[in-house]
Amino acid sequence: MRLFIGTFVQIPEFVSLKNSFSFLEAKWTKRSNLHITWLFLGKADPKAIIEALHGIDYQKDPIPIKGLGFFGSPPKILYAKAGSTRLSKLHDDICKRLDFEDDRPFIPHITLARIKKIKDQDRFIKQIRRFEHKSLGLLIPKIELIKSTLTQKGPIYEPIATF
Q1: What is the pLDDT of residue 84?
Q2: Is the pLDDT of residue 42 over 90?
Q3: Angle, helix 85-97 to helix 46-53, in steps of 10 degrees
Q4: According to the 3-state scheme, what is the secondary structure of the chain?
Q5: pLDDT tens digit string along 84-137?
Q6: What's the CA gap between 10 and 137, in Å, rounded?
Q7: Rounded to whole angstroms, how far apart are CA atoms 133 and 160?
Q8: Considering the entire predicted model, what is its pTM?
Q9: Cβ neighbours of residue 143 under 8 Å, at least 6 residues apart?
């Protein structure tokens, strides 16, 4: 079973945000699939994960989703930022409980689109700057073990446990 630990998020202005990047050729994340990934597990035993994360303690206060960023050069992923030291601490706690060493730095983010082509590079950078301090929504931490099924129409995410 293909699994990850994540939190689904709402970005109320997702459609207008998407429209403001109309100059991109991109595969946009389905609104219902917007999430932050705490840890991608791949093929794993859900029972062991549920047991390890049972009783995990974390703050459930909302965290602002503010600003945009991108990964890659040239940009390949457009994302919304969810910056907070609480998020890094929660990621570390999840890794510790699962006895998992993450060799990459944790960058809290919500993938919005996988970029195929940028038709106007200057406009892309201007849009990123335009959203630099703009509030896009709130992340309300709710840790879930999520089953990911890949299909030709895109991934299907199904929560199987909440902590």
Answers
A1: 83
A2: yes
A3: 120
A4: CEEEEEEECCCCCHHHHHHCCCCEEEEECCHHHCEEEEEEEEECCHHHHHHHHCCCCCCCCCEEEECEEEECCCCCEEEEECCCHHHHHHHHHHHHHCCCCCCCCCCCEEEEEEEEEECCHHHHHHHHHHCCCCEEEEECCCCEEEEEECCCCCCEEEEEEEC
A5: 889 999 999 999 999 999 888 999 999 999 999 999 999 999 999 999 999 999
A6: 7
A7: 35
A8: 0.93
A9: 5, 7, 38, 53, 56, 58, 90, 94, 162, 163
Q: How far apart are CA 111 and CA 142, in angstroms?
A: 18
Q: Which residue has the tokens 């093929």?
A: 43
Q: What is the CATH number of domain 2-162?
A: 3.90.1140.10
Question: Partners of 39 in the beta sheet?
Answer: 5
Q: What are phi and psi of 109, to 5 degrees?
A: -160, 160
Q: What are phi and psi of 44, to 5 degrees?
A: -150, 165
What is d(CA 37, CA 158) in angstroms, rounded to the nearest whole number? 14
